[in-house]
Amino acid sequence: MRTDANFTLVQLRYFLAAAELGSMTAAAAQVNVSQSAVSTAVTHLERELGVQLLIRRHAKGLALTASGERFVHEVREFLARAEELTESARSLGRDPVGELSVGCFTTLAPFSLPRLLRDMAQRYPAVGVSVVEGEMQFLQEALRTGACELALMYDLGLDSDIEGEVLGSAPPYALVPDGHRLAGRGQARFAELAEEPMILLDLPLSRDYFTSLLARAGLTPQVRHRSTSYETVRAMVGAGHGWSLLNQRPVHATTYDGGRAVALALTDPLPALRVVLARMRGSRLTSRARAFASVCRETYRS
């Protein structure tokens, strides 16, 4: 690959659009130029770099070469940095502006997002924050593809290319129906619940975490029902179908259908889940993302 290659940001943007959409025609429509302009930009890039980036397949669109795959990741980061540089130059002495996409783990969202978004809007009103929710692997992939710049999640099964700043912790607790023999005690040991039917929050990685807690105590859960919904688990417990393990605590015991589910502190020595603000390892954050990170730190400290 040549070291004196000469190309423009516009050509890089045209190439990225073509690579992501797999079509010169679709890329042209997205960036609002002619198809020949996109094709010329890609050809110029390939000539300047001395490598083939895209394979043109008749009637089947475009495919990235191995070099093209690597180049796409570099271009995304480069263009993000270029945008950040432009933004910094335009907003010297001003608060950050623009759009920011963040991710949030599905069970954390109702407990964390309302306050974070309120505090963000109060401190940085010129930043518009959009949110994508999902489970752990979904959010990590969203960070990789640039669908979000930061993600609020648990430090649970993070891949090596993802790093997380610890914001706080969420210790596990037991949830039992109102009227349960232990409901009035405020605390319990695993051994007192192990023989009773369990309602398992059945999200990827989360279920492994919960069952590992019981395994540490030498117990095997008697799982009667499973659900990927936090509120369904609470409602099932409130209706008397079993007990459960959770980490996030609502401010009230009432479930969606009017039942009551009582939280019990666990006296067993158990590891708490750490809440982290995740990002791609080694990535440079935009000023908008840095602002959001500072709000997260302050909000969790308080």
In words, what does this structure look like?
α5 (109-123) crosses α9. This protein has helices at 9-21, 24-31, 35-49, 66-90, 109-123, 136-145, 206-216, 230-238, 287-301, and strands spanning 54-57, 61-64, 98-105, 127-134, 150-154, 162-170, 173-177, 187-188, 197-201, 222-227, 244-246, 261-266, 273-280. The chain is elongated and about 75 Å long. It is α/β, with parallel strands linked by helices. The chain starts with 8 loop residues before the first helix and ends with a helix. The chain has a 5-stranded mixed sheet with strand order 4-3-5-13-6, with helices on both faces. Strands 8-12-7-11 form a 4-stranded mixed sheet. Strands 1-2 form a two-stranded antiparallel ribbon. α5 links the parallel β3 and β4 (127-134). It has 9 helices and 13 strands.
